[in-house]
Amino acid sequence: MKKAIIVDDEPLARMVIKEYLLQHPSIEVMQECNDGFEGIKAIMQHQPDVIFLDIQMPKINGFEMLELVEQPPAVIFTTAFDEFAIKAFESHAVDYLLKPFSQERFDKAIERLTEREAAVTAGNTRDLLEAAAQSPQQNQRIVVKTGNKIKIIPVDEVHYLEAADDYVKIHTKEGAFLKNKTMGHFEKVLNTQQFVRTHRSYIINVQLVTRIDPYEKESYLAQLTTGAQVPVSKTGYAKLKSVLGI
Questions:
Q1: Cα-Cα-Cα-Cα dihedral of 223, 229, 234, 238, to 10°?
Q2: Reduced to 3 DSSP states, what percent helix, strand and coil does the chain have, rounded to the nearest 5?
Q3: What is the dotted CATH code of the domain comprising 142-244?
Q4: Is the separation of the CB atoms in 129 and 164 below 8 Å?
Q5: Which class does domain 2-136 fall in?
Q6: With helix as H, strand as E and coil as C, how does 17-31 read?
Q7: Which pLDDT value is given to residue 126?
Q8: How far apart are CA 136 and CA 198, in angstroms?
Q9: Would you say 114 and 24 are in contact if contact means Cβ atoms under 8 Å apart?
Q10: Domain edges within the chain
Q11: What is the per-residue pLDDT across 193-206, written as a single tens digit (0 to 9) for each?
């Protein structure tokens, strides 16, 4: 028996999935969730084999929810989303169902789940999130988990990012928050005209730079309006000057 969770803010959509699942008695719905917050709690509680997940939901979207799950299960998306994301689904998700979908199309998704069971791992979902992050809709904010709480940080509120072992420390006026991503990830997805990697361990919001001071041999310190001092390497200095137009 496979355990499933449905995460969708539309009651009708959840009802349709449950109705279609009547044809698949080997899959048991453990819980229905109205949003991503509920979805995270349900995944932690039930450890499902598969989730039927909408993307466009209030509070946090489906991608952001998956980012906060340490060991994400197999995913079947049930959504109406952009073409870019669909290409990502084709490579890494079990399947995607564009609303409205029929029983026949749903059944094919369940077949794919069975066929790909051995190959579908948490790594597939992580690859999916990396691909989806290239969409402009996905890089306007950063969602982090602090204890039992979830915080949404608009990228404009980020002062700078700092490498911290397997995490990235996101510095804001409210403090620092850890995100289980790499510096390379943020360098790739953030707006390069606003965020510059000045050092292998730092990315700064150039809108906050007040001056750049010499520090040690071929290195500098960027002074921010917040009072923070961020290291700048020789290579980072050249990139920073280019973006600042100096």
A1: -30
A2: 35, 30, 30
A3: 2.40.50.1020
A4: no
A5: alpha beta
A6: HHHHHCCCCCEEEEE
A7: 63
A8: 23
A9: no
A10: 2-136, 142-244
A11: 999 999 999 999 99
